[in-house]
Amino acid sequence: MNWLSRQFTTRVIVLIPIAIALNIVLGFITQTVLRLPIYLDSIGTILVGVLAGPIAGAATGAATNLIWQFTGITPNIGPFFLTAAVIGFLAGLWGYLGIFRPRPASGTQLVMAAAIAAGIVVLLVVPIIGNPTYLDPDLGGFPEWAVPAAIIIAILAALAVAAFIYVRRDLAGLWVALAGALTGIVAAIVSAPIAAYVFGGVTGSGTDVIVAALRQGGADVFQAALGQGFFSDPIDKVITSFVVFVLLAGLSRRLVSRFPLGDRLGPTSEPMPGSSADN
Amino acid sequence: MTLHLDSVTYRYAGAVREALRDVSLEIGPGHAVGIAGASEAGKSTLCLVAAGLAPQTIGGRLEGRVTVDALDTSATPPHVLAQRCGILFQQPATQLSATASTVWEEVAIGPRNLGLALDEVIERTWAALAVLAIEHLADRDPDLLSGGQMQLVALAGVLAMRPAYLVLDEPTAQLDPAGTAMVGRAIEGLAENGASILIAEQKSDLLAALCQRIIVLDAGRVVGKGSPEEVLADERLEEWGVDAPAPVRLRRTLTAAGLPPELVL
Amino acid sequence: MTAGAHPRGLPDFVARTESGPYRDLAPTTRLVLALSMALFAFVVRGWTGPLLVLALVVLLAWLARVRRGFVPYLLATLPFVISVLLINTFLYPDATDVMFTIGPVSATASGFTDAVQTALRVVAFALSVALFALTTPTNLLVADLERRGLGRRPAFVLGAAVGLVPRLLRQAREIAEAQRARGLDTESTIWRRARGVVPLAGPLVVGALSDVEDRSMALEARAFSAPGRRTVLRTQPEGAFQRAARWGLVVATAAVVVASVAGYLRWLP
């Protein structure tokens, strides 16, 4: 089998439509029904990317947005298929690099990893609060409580990530956070021109609150779209990456090992004590 | 022309324990062989191995040899095996492709996948529906059928491949009594018409009615084999975790009450 | 097993063909048409693009006898339309032609113009896709694409994905109902909404993934990995006109895109 068909085995072909449907349903619920300022429409994409490689991931992402537009439940999702494809492609890269493989550790290594991950999360918030536009009262800017609220959210998120790493005694959390943050930043950069040029910088979902706030602070259409992206995307992709990480850890070795990149998720040839999936 | 397992030992990918140990089995043309045993005894595994899905499709390690009409299942492509040995699983819903809007199109999927001529596809589809007497379901949406009906549609899909052997992995396990009766009747019809069947079941009534031979599995090993009368009246059934069929249980109850067992017809 | 004589051919409900000026077109042609219209609506800025496309959509919908089907698609555009009307009217950067002021924000004419144009653009885009989706069942589209050479794997992915969405939505609704009985609230503060996603997403994802192994086995047992092309059930003859029309559309759309990007279309209103 050549390299391409190795990425698209029957198991992968079965997984992809499930991943697409999950993306659409979870994304629709998060964005339109619950109107949260995040997306949560990439869990399936990243899952496929990590298990089956960059091309499969990119295909899943692109197909998600196109099929989503076809269903009509969200009218402005189609053109972002580029972003989704990039997210899937990156997920495939992280899969190849074994980012999502458990890395048991303890002691100082663990504490350092937790600290660094917490630092990354806090850094994600800096562009928002560090921008003088938002703080200058003459320009309108965010309401008074926005900056302290953002700091508190950042600290809480950082603590959550650090706790995740420490309690699970697993260094992988650091790499997952890093991968998620990078994916989010790239996604924001790819999305901004699409949002600005095609949709006037407006998303029609919960993220518009951020767009409005940024515009009020003096940003133009593109800057507001980019700023909104930098707020929502890294957080969303870090959350999504952690969700995928936990999911993968919970899947049986037998199921995972049969995927093209399954072996990069941890040893599958050595027998696990006490397990025998059988009937 | 037989389905032959020769000293087969099998272990799932990532497992410590072997799921099958030194199992040998042969199914000749027109024979129906039953597999009995408690859950986790290896019945499903034996079905997957016999149909050739293990090890090729699901991985794992196989020792020994499995041949279907002299084809080695470890060395033959799955689509060739699918035309020799069909397999029906427990869960009706996951066997449907979810891409067909009518039962007819769902059953036609197998022949279509083989790239057969359109006339052949049409013929096989109607034939499969007719054999199971479900032509009246042909224009229905497969998603909206009852469990028993779905299972019959899945079976029709398998029959459309015209396999020489049928492996049935607890086909009525997830069905309600009506569905169980429906599917049981259909399988008995197939057996009467001379199909070669390997069927695993917890409900030994079906095995008793259907099979000329039954083997009992316990922890992956064959611990009993023989005709249904011999096996299902064996004292060790309870130890093996197998429920005896209704007439046997009734006989035992009568005997325990001091009444003549011949009262049961 | 006994086959018996089967003089029947393809059942009617499988071989059904549609008729009408729009529905006579092959699904692939309709797809190309929908994409061209969508691109046109975006690429030709101002009023021309969106209004032209909307007019065409209305005409084709009338020809194809699509009426009430548009309503859910239209309703789905409402949140976006409201959002863009509010944000771009009141918060349009560098706009000085103020119409009126409410508190800290002012509505500007150029902002309002941009907002309405964007709204029209998105509605035109959504409706041209809607027209295609409403008149073209997925399995017809997939069959048409397969006839033209689409492999069985992408065909399966397309068909299964579209089929799974309503099923998962139904499951999600059921889970949400159960959660609501336990206190998940979709109307309240952002915190409670966020907290509500996890118990919803968890069972949905795990349930969907658990089937992968069984479904792959079932596919293999139906010879899914056989080589060569799958047999196509419906053959829909099409004239040379359609093929020419498709290529013509592609070339014309490409030309319009280039012209727009190069700035030649700025004279349009």
Notable features of this structure?
heterotrimer, A: 279 residues, mainly alpha, 12 helices, disordered C terminus, B: 265 residues, alpha/beta, Rossmann fold, 2 domains, six-stranded mixed sheet, four-stranded antiparallel sheet, 11 helices, 10 strands, 22% strand, globular
Q: How many angstroms separate the termini of chain A?
A: 32 Å
Radius of gyration of chain A: 20 Å
Structural class of chain C: mainly alpha
Largest sheet of chain A: none
Count structural domains of chain C: 2
Q: What do these coordinates show?
A:
The complex is a heterotrimer of chains A (279), B (265) and C (269). Chain A has helices at residues 3-7, 10-33, 43-52, 54-71, 81-96, 107-129, 132-135, 146-168, 172-199, 208-216, 221-250, 253-257. Chain A is mostly helical. In chain B, helix 6 packs parallel to helix 7. By secondary structure, chain B is an alpha/beta fold. The longest helix of chain B has 16 residues, at 177-192. The mean pLDDT of chain B is 89. Chain C has two domains: 23-136 and 239-269, no CATH class; 150-225, no CATH class. Chain C is built from ten helices and two strands. Chain C has a two-stranded antiparallel sheet with strand order 1-2. In chain C, 37% of the residues are buried. The model of chain C is unreliable at 1-6 (pLDDT under 50). Chains in contact: A-B, A-C, B-C. At the A-C interface, helix 2, helix 4, helix 10 and helix 11 of A face helix 4, helix 5, helix 7, helix 8 and helix 9 of C.
